[in-house]
């Protein structure tokens, strides 16, 4: 049993699910509306009131989590906490309240998780589809075939900003609607030609706003009740005639969702018209379902991060044989050091595989270029926190250790740094590495025993070992090397 929490721009939402006979069954859902994006000022600073509402919502979700025997919980934050300049302050308090790490995911990663949820619910391997998710702060578009994502994009337009900017206090008129539509159109215009040419056969809407809009169309008998451009225009006309969202007299318009419906409608009209969409089918799947599938697949079958690493190796023309040798050396040394937990095992291996990607930019200071690429690249399945930790390992693969900024205070992280540095050194010195020939341990100091035959056979190894002792001494850690 596992849980997914989405800290969205319009609401915080929770799914608790369980994998049963090929599908994930949702056992419990909860929604805490708080319109977090409305708490941003013009400088993208979250207000104290928004802080408090967010923390209160998390306390209520924590009470639900505590009632279930969960094997894994993943909490992600989306657009508002991507752009808020004081997001780190909120997240620090929020993690204490919810009791789990919170990962701020990129718009592209959000799109991939949305598609993962939709694709696994539909289970139609040959279907070419466009998936649309309209959130409070951003809109995601994903084109794919079956389980495969062809293109995933995030656009900085969402329901909360649209509503606040064009429908103040729920007041509606034709001029405001046209201005809102024009604003939304400007966000998508560069993408129109691509998506019109994709050849998708079905279009699905995965967000709560789209499902709510579909319900309003059906419940009120607007046109034939489907989500088409013609019916969306009829809904727009009814809202303009009413003059205010609360006077529209429409069934299914809940007070807390009213502003989202307005903002979302402007985006839906643009997408159906400009992209040539005949009908959008609402679907009960999306980000939270995608997160739960991601948890399940990482634990049991296919870890999408493995494919992201392979993509990086191909993209930057890495010598895979060298990369695999260094990764194998690093893992063997790390296991010998006896880490307290498995936390860094995969990160160390992946970092070792990517340790030379910076050469694509320049052979000079390639470790610095590699660290930058890893931290800032769009790597499917990875959290920003994981990428930052890996970038630190790649940065620390050689040279001075002062640049690691506190990484060495964690015992397992220190051992990972030792393992990677020694693996890279052995590769450079062209040592015919045998794990049982090298003895390394890390306690209060680093102690290393090297076969004398290595020192005799590989002339640069002694030089590098002496330099290594100096670099560790520079950060107050003694390293001793003996031969046997």
TrEMBL record:
User: Which InterPro entries has this protein been placed in?
Assistant: ATPase_NBD, GppA/Ppx_hydrolase, HD/PDEase_dom, Ppx_GppA_C, Ppx_GppA_N, PyroPPase_GppA_Ppx
The record places domain Ppx/GppA phosphatase C-terminal at 305-468
Q: Which UniProt keywords apply?
A: Hydrolase
Chain coiled-coil ranges: none
Give every Ppx/GppA phosphatase N-terminal domain span. Answer: 18-297
State any single GO MF term.
Answer: pyrophosphatase activity
Domain of life per record: Bacteria
Q: What is this protein called?
A: Putative exopolyphosphatase
The organism is: Oxalobacter formigenes OXCC13
